[in-house]
């Protein structure tokens, strides 16, 4: 199995509830290692840029508002099959459909306030990591 990197974000709904440590612990207990991490408060422009792929969707404005409403933790995770592992640990987008003991089942409030984001493919991971981190900030 190959060592892989992925992007992870702890969203404002979770940072407001002081869940940064609890969520990071769940990621680490799943075998993922945090190799870069930063607390940011996204501007509207940054949120629009990061979520540009959803620009034409009806929820885009609400998403941008939510993501720019408070501090967010942006992270780079590393581990065996990190992308798939992170998505497994996050659970389904809708917390009602998430498996037991996943981040979203335990911590999410709703589909919109689902506490975390994670890359869905190697190309997306590379793009999302590059959006928030320079190569010198990733110190795994």
Automatic annotation (TrEMBL):
GO biological process, one term: GTP biosynthetic process
The organism's place on the tree of life at top rank: Bacteria
Family matches, as Pfam families: NDK
PROSITE patterns documented for this protein: NDPK, NDPK_LIKE
Catalyzed reaction equations: a 2'-deoxyribonucleoside 5'-diphosphate + ATP = a 2'-deoxyribonucleoside 5'-triphosphate + ADP; a ribonucleoside 5'-diphosphate + ATP = a ribonucleoside 5'-triphosphate + ADP
Sequence ranges assigned to domain Nucleoside diphosphate kinase-like in this UniProt record: 3-140
Cross-referenced InterPro entries: NDK-like_dom (IPR034907), NDK-like_dom_sf (IPR036850), Nucleoside_diP_kinase (IPR001564), Nucleoside_diP_kinase_AS (IPR023005)
This protein's GO CC annotations: cytoplasm
Cofactor needs: Mg(2+)
Active site residues of this protein: 117 (pros-phosphohistidine intermediate)
Gene3D superfamilies (UniProt xref): Nucleoside diphosphate kinase-like domain
Subcellular localization(s) per the UniProt record: Cytoplasm
Membership in a protein family: Belongs to the NDK family.
Subunit structure: Homotetramer.
Record's protein name: Nucleoside diphosphate kinase
Gene name of this polypeptide: ndk
